[in-house]
Amino acid sequence: LSVKFKRNNIMDKIHHIAIEVKNIKDSIDWYTKNTNCKISYQDNTWAMLSYDNISLALVLPNMHPPHIAFEKTNAEEYGELKKHRDGTSSVYINDPSNNSIEILKK
Q1: Closest by alpha carbon to 23, among 63, 60, 62?
Q2: pLDDT digit string (tens) for the chain, length 106 residues
Q3: Does residue 5 sit in helix, strand or coil?
Q4: Sheet (strand 55-59) strand order
Q5: How many Cα atoms are found within 13 Å in the side-chain-facing hemisphere of 72?
Q6: What would the DSSP string read from start to end of 13-31?
Q7: Is residue 41 within 8 Å of residue 84, measured between CB atoms?
Q8: Which of 30, 49, 66, 79 has the greatest CB tally within 10 Å of its CB?
């Protein structure tokens, strides 16, 4: 995959980092008790916690891959966008080391 883009002084924004957890509810309970955050989204397979500078996604094994998500205005150039339950659209790609990268439509 090779996407052409212009270099400018505006850096890309990391929207969120997704980590794998064993139980969504237990993890939300732990993070909300031990860190100052807001629950942006929650269902049985994943949740999004908002912080001042970034969001943290909690994902279950085999439901969503652990990943890092970048906001891009040209997300569709990375592949076909998929609409998600939370209203966002994105595509998953892999970096050269096979890490999952989500390109989120800005």
Answers
A1: 60
A2: 666 655 666 889 999 999 999 999 999 999 999 999 999 999 999 999 999 999 999 999 999 899 999 999 999 999 999 998 888 999 999 999 999 999 999 9
A3: coil
A4: 38-42, 46-50, 55-59, 13-20, 67-72, 100-105, 89-94, 82-83
A5: 21
A6: EEEEEEEE-S-HHHHHHHH
A7: no
A8: 49
